[in-house]
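Lecture notes, unit on binding sites. The following record was shown on slide 14. It pairs a sequence with adenosine-5'-diphosphate.
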Amino acid sequence: MIRDARVLRAGFVPSEVEHRDAEVNHLSTVLQPITDGEPADTAVVTGPSGVGKTCISKFVTERLREEVLDVESTYVNCWRNFTRYRTLYQILDDLGQTINIHRQSTPHDELVDRLQQYDGPRAVVILDEVDQLEDPNLIYDLHSLPQFALICIANREQDLFNSVDERLVSRLRASEHVRLERYHDPELYDILGARAKRGLDPDVISDDQLYRIADAAAGDARLAIGMLRSAASRADRESKDTITDSMLLDAAEDARTQIKQKSIDSLTPHQRLVYDIVREQGPLTPSDIYEQYSEQADDPRTARTCRTYLSKMEQYNLIEGDGTSRDRTYSVVDSTKTSDIFETG
Ligand SMILES: Nc1ncnc2c1ncn2[C@@H]1O[C@H](COP(=O)(O)OP(=O)(O)O)[C@@H](O)[C@H]1O
Ligand SMILES: [Mg+2]
């Protein structure tokens, strides 16, 4: 049944990226100068969840490192490392520059100094989910250092620009943008097909079934691959040779639940509080949400920050907004809604 489980995992970076030639080439061109030891422009990569932002950024960086010896790279998920300190530490750690830095006691200025002094090979720094940094002006620290080529990944340009100060906005506006759109069904079908071919024994899943997964995933490659993984692991557990349609139906729900849980687990404590308020009391307007939140939180963040939380949770399908911008309300996404795509066959 399963030939290579790795290729079905969420974080797997494929050796071939499907249908993103233009975007891959664009990003490669931006980074190209560092292969000659020259400083490279900052790249901003945006798009909804599951469109390949992380995948192509890692892919392009890896390919660059195959081409030339003297390039380092580091990847930081800024959602997980949402303070400036943690992100700085993570970058230094990846570059092997944390000797004599003590996680608790070293002031963050010293981390910035270390980055400034870094004189190793030029390094690509991927800042993923960068709009989740509590203090995104860290981008400025890095942007101004010629040793580093930055790839900043966010869902929406606007969320990123709203959270940084003027001088950084103008720098970022001037940098190169790679915008990724949701996949069309035939593209998702190809992405799935490539994974199935490498990950599963032949004839485990039919083309028609792959196409239905693509259709159900609505442009989101993470969801599509999650459905395939879930169906395959069920068939494997039950020692079946093929994936049945009823397995697909369960897999669709299972993958959605898993992805949702993972997103909830990623929320920072402040975001989690906002999510719980929406879950328990929604639909609520942003100002009602903020009122509740600022009463309940220790050291509440600003109303503007609270709105960025709502936007992020909307991007990750945890909550949904209803109405126009003036009378907009938020409630949690009803995960009991399942697709009927698989039932009809
Ligand atoms: N063009 C593509 N070709 C092959 N696999 C892809 C492609 N785009 C996305 N994927 C896969 O889909 C999943 C989701 O992609 P990811 O880069 O994590 O999305 P994003 O960062 O935009 O949310 C990953 O497993 C990734 O490897
Ligand atoms: Mg990503």
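Take-home: The chain has a mean pLDDT of 93.
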